[in-house]
Amino acid sequence: MPVHLTRRGFLAASAGAAAMHPFSLRAQAGQAHLRLMETTDLHVHVWPYDYYADKEIDTVGLARTAALIEDVRAEASNALLLDNGDFLQGNPLGDYIAYERGMEEGQAHPVIAAMNTLGVDASTLGNHEFNYGLQFLERALAGADYPVVSANVVTTMGKTPTEDETLVPPYVILDATVTDGAGEARAVRVGVIGFVPPQIMQWDRQHLEGRVEVRDIVEAARAYVPKMKEEGADLIVALSHSGIGPAEHEPMMENASVPLAAVEGIDVVLTGHHHLVFPGPDYEGIEGVDAEAGTIHGKPAVMAGFWGSHMGLVDLLLERDGEGWRVVEAEVEARPIYLRDEDGEVTPTVESVEPVLQSVADEHQATLDYVRRAVGRTDAPLHSYFALVADDPSVQIVSNAQIWYISQMMQGTENEGLPILSAAAPFKAGGRGGAEYYTDVPAGDVAIRNVADLYLYPNTVRAVKVDGATVREWLERSAGMFNQITPGEADQSLLNPDFPSYNFDVIDGVTYRIDLSEPAKYGAEGEVANPDANRIKELSFEGQPIDEDQEFIVATNNYRAGGGGSFPTLDGSNTVFEGPDTNRDVIVRYIVEQGTVSPEADANWTFAPMEGTTVIFDTGPRGTRYADQVEGVEIEPLGEAEGGFYRYRITL
Q1: Considering the entire predicted model, what is its pTM?
Q2: CATH of the domain at 84
């Protein structure tokens, strides 16, 4: 059953006066200005802190977003704050609560405590709310001082959505009070309904199968919106934890916000899930979407970035229409908590709100202790000093974790049973980053903060379906890392300084050699520069030459799967799985589950022999500790090089 309640004020009242919005100034008798604020994809980021890097940062944190919310409440008294989901998981604070402290009955979850402090009026569930299981979710939500709604997660499915028993209430009707242009207080009933991607049944099958089912987002909306109108909702706001995607509705689509906005009766769409910003250029050129005005099918919509980076704001000028209200004008923006200049320098636009920080201060400190403490062990040192010249343990552990994760995600899908490979690249490998810019985690205990050393970027996991011929071309593009080498000559420079190490993908699960006597097939921008070149030799799968027609699943990240690096055929069209988890989170989970990992390089790739030929390369000086452990290549030290590097020779 829906819940009816009166909106609470912000517990830490905002201070000071601010300029009134034009809608407030222009409102006449029978007209009122209502402001809707959105947070989305917080992923437990309350403090402005990067727990992986173990340092304060200015680009995240609900405590910073809270300052923007205070400003809006000061500008206009008629304001509602709505959260669009993915609040419960996504950084080490969330993992500390789930895996270390636990959630016993009666305990407060820190992100819920922070949102209580901030005075959230309603929220919906995102897909990450299910990552820790239903019991954990239930206990976390029990501490919320606001309703949490979701219309398409069902415990008992009826003949129609309105006959379902849902996991949480499908919607809520908020009784808000607004002041019209004549100064008269009036009631506005705001219906809030929530939706989550149906793909939760795939992403969290182990927690959900046999316990809940899901409805299609648009199907559920079409059923519930008329019911909400019958119960007196003047306005209906859709909390769509679903991205802005195709205009055409397809059953059980993940990113359904565009067809959802077309549902009759919905007035405003608050979106999320994509970790992008709307209005803005991220969504230019999509049918039904005005990326500048911030509308979808003419209705105001907003997406407030992620991790507290923005606050979404929808300003509505309402007018009495008979016994109810209608929207006569709207403005939309996503307000940032920081600005970034052309050089990448970040300037914060707000300071943290102290009551929000203090609401989770104890858990924040406990998380710092947690990330600095071992969560597992490694039998082998994890370093990248030789990652560009030989198979490497720091890349190996990423591949091991990706294969472990994607193997689970493919179960029960049409791609179950296809061989799974993994593509991973060394991110910290010297170059312009300097002689200290290398991964270096010694054998022994591994702490969560070490994962940032292994995987620099907050990419999310993807899987693509490709054939053997594409695997070969993928590796040909990666082999642009190396200069062409003349057979029989001594001490030629091996590494191409203009080729970024993050584009040097090693594909685990196949074996191959790289023939440096051939030119690179692909140029700097991924164009075919030497069509007859063939650097990849002896490419084999399970000991046999690879079948170029055989299908493979390759675990990778969203950057590569979506076309990053201009790899042949990788443009998003062959993506078969878009994971909700970051690659970093997957590595942490893998280490926690394994307890002790043994990411020893298996030398699945080497250079093809070239008699009488040597090459030289530079790496970090601390690599001397591991030089005698490099597999598959014969190297010898030559001494110090320019820029603080250390030089080695390889005999091919």
Answers
A1: 0.76
A2: 3.60.21.10
